[in-house]
Amino acid sequence: MIRFTRVTKTYPRTGTAVQDVSLTVNKGEFVLLTGASGAGKTSLLKMVYLEERPTSGEVRVAGTSSVTATARDVAKLRRKLGIVFQDFRLLENRTVEQNVSFALEVIGAPTGVIGGKVNRVLTQVGLASKGRAFPRELSGGEQQRVAIARALVNDPFALIADEPTGNLDDRATRGIFQLLREINASGTAIIMATHNLELIRRQEYRTIEMARGQIVYDSAETTSVPRPTP
Amino acid sequence: MRPFRDAFETFNRAPLLSALSVTTIAFSLFALGLFGLVALNIREALERLEERVEIRAFVAEGTPPEDIAQAASDIASFPEVLRADLVTQEEAVKRAQSELGEFRDLFEGAVLPASIDLRLKPGQRDPATVKRVADRVKTYSFIDDVRYGEEWIEKLHRLRNIAGISGLALGLVFAAVSMIIIGATIRMAVLARAKEISIMRLVGATDGYIRRPFLVEGFAKGVMGGLLALALTWIAQALINKYVIQTIFFDARVAMLGLLFGALIGLLGSAVSVGRHLRRV
Q1: B254 at the A interface (CB within 8 A)?
Q2: Interface test with B, best of A50, A99, A106 (most B CBs within 10 A)
Q3: What is the ipTM of this complex?
Q4: Cβ pair A106:B195 closer than 8 A
Q5: Which of A102, A197, B48, B159 is most deeply packed, by most CB within 10 A?
Q6: DSSP tag of B162
């Protein structure tokens, strides 16, 4: 479903961010991506939704190849992915409902179905009663839930989350993580970059650790490689 | 509908900026329009004058009338020639008297040479053709002299070309300037919505969808600039008519073309600006 084949990404000014990474994420998998800042996590995620293209190698996501995809193909791919960031990226001058429906409007979804879908995802993330609120009126955890609702409203096959709990306190972090588990349970794959050691220590999920642009540990691979202490 | 609604919103959000870009387009097209008017009116005047272009070939005294008549009919069959009229000595005197009414007495008993007067066909009245025909007429041995207003024909032609070329050059410069300014104003509108655009892209909106409202905005600004320019040119022409000289205005087709040109400037200016932003982010 998501396959990296010998992917290297080099930026003209800052050098190599990802080096010779090969990786497969299957349907419905929950993957935690860890590593120090600058290890290449964000660059790796950006290549999943083709915000960046590999300098060499190939990324294939749901049949779209980083080598051949046109701008239109990239747009089409993103309609099948949900993307969430640490800083939420909500539109401040729109209500919660409008922020979520925006994602449907701009891809030309028929007006008739938008209301129902928005209500469904807002219920799913636990914000059914806050549809009319503006983002500034919500807590950080709630704002991230709005962002997740926006990411889910198109029924993505995978949710890409880059440090989604990085700005949140422990309670809100647990809430968001619980929400992501529920989403995963309903069949959506999740790739989440995180620093949160508590989550990583649980060892329930496939964990991939990066350092200096390379994968140094992957719990799905053979256990012959000792896991470095986090 | 959405692109129109969004474009209208941007207009509302930054009315001063929008007015500035409309005015810039208007003034560029106005400059173009004024030069166009000058070129148009010179051409019109030239055409009217050209209708009067006449080559007069004077016949040496004592030439037998049959020779003259023969020559006149020969000349009439030149491909460029519309008519060749024979003017006898007596007719020449009469014509001079009627043309110079006050001094008619001076021509009493005067002797004026007979002539063959030529008129050329429309489209054959440019300086080069006139000269060629005149030279050919000169080859008859009994033709003393051939006259035509060569100096002013050439001057008018040159004037027309200068007005046309400088109008075009100035218009293009102004058009480029307004494209840059339109581009800058659209760019500000784009930057004001940069976050929105980045989210649109994230959730899978196509570049075409993102671009459309900005293109509508640029197009609308161009059309408005064009209309304003047309109005300004029309007022200028009305003032010239009233205080300086009677002139003619563009016909509907040319006016439409000017409007379209404005729309094109607006459209291109925004297309370049949005395209650059989308490529960069």
Answers
A1: no
A2: A106
A3: 0.85
A4: no
A5: A102
A6: H
Helix (H, G, I), strand (E, B) or coil at B247: coil
Residue with tokens 């019109």: B44
Residues 6+ apart with CB under 8 A from B1: none
CA distances (Å), B58 to each of B117, B130, B142, B172, in order? 9, 16, 9, 49
Structure tokens at B244: 């300086």
Question: In angstroms, rounded to a whole number, what is the distance separating the alpha carbons of residues A168 and A179?
Answer: 14
Structure tokens at B30: 């106005």
| Residues of A in Cβ contact (< 8 Å) with B200 | 106
Predicted confidence pLDDT, tens digits, chain B (281 residues): 677 777 777 777 778 878 887 888 888 788 878 877 887 887 787 777 767 767 888 888 888 888 888 888 888 888 888 888 888 888 888 887 777 777 777 767 677 888 888 888 877 777 788 888 888 888 888 888 888 876 777 777 787 778 778 777 877 887 788 778 777 877 887 888 888 899 999 999 999 899 998 899 889 988 999 999 999 999 998 998 888 888 888 888 888 988 898 898 888 888 888 888 888 76
Q: How many residues does chain B have?
A: 281
- Distances, alpha carbon B248 to alpha carbons A123, B2, B39, B254, B275, in Å: 70, 42, 11, 13, 42
